[in-house]
Amino acid sequence: MANTKAYAATSADSGLAAYAIDRRELRADDVAIEIDYCGVCHSDLHTVENDWGGSKYPVVPGHEIIGRVTAVGSGVTHYKEGDMVGVGCMVDSCRTCSACESGLEQYCLDGSTMTYGGFDRHDGSITHGGYSERIVVSERFVVRIPENLDPASAAPILCAGITTYSPLKHFNVGKGHKVGVLGMGGLGHMGVKIAKALGAEVTIFTRSEAKVAEAKKQGADHVIISTDPEQMKAAKGSFDYLLDTIPVAHDLNPYLNCLSYDGTHILVGLLTPIEPAVQAGLLVTKRRVIAGSLIGGMPETQEVLDFCAEHDITCDVEMLDIRHINEAYERMKKGDVKYRFVIDMKTLKD
Ligand code: NDP
Ligand code: ZN
Question: What ipTM does this complex have?
Answer without folding.
Answer: 0.99
